[in-house]
User: What shape does this take?
Amino acid sequence: MNFPVYLRDVLTHIEYLLEVIKERPKEALEFGCGTGFHSSFISKFVRHMVCLDLNVKTLEIARENVKKFGDAGKVSFIVGDVFHLPFRSKAFDVAFSQGLLEHFSSDEAKQILREASACARAVIVSVPSLNYPRRDLGDERLLSPASWREILREFKPKVRYYVIDFQSIKNSLLAKRIPKPWHILIKIRP
Assistant: This one.
């Protein structure tokens, strides 16, 4: 992956990433880290972070991207299951994830957030909204903020659309349509 792809991904989710940074984390966890672009960005603002993903090949891509775009000396990589996070209670200041929860049922999403909440003081996630124009992997649940708020009510989450959704704005303007936010930000304080 090259720098323009990294930059596009970071700019698309800059509002979410800034929410993570606002927590002033020393220790951070990205669960379901995927390509590691977000970990690469956040690694510049923490003392240490852990990238966790179940897929070994994806984790290798993340490792290479962190070497290229992040502060690799601050990042550890763990093959692990989001349903069974192997960390002690409140080991992290923040746990974050983008593009993960929408692939799971409501009960599974809640279980993932219980795991993340157990090991972090704050949990911040981003999911595509019902305005998102496609299903990238085919199994995404595209919902409204109100639906996510209801599903996750036990966590008393703060749920909202991104205020500035660059990807939506750019694509909507190119298609000569009024922009609608494509992404939802969910914040939990256990």
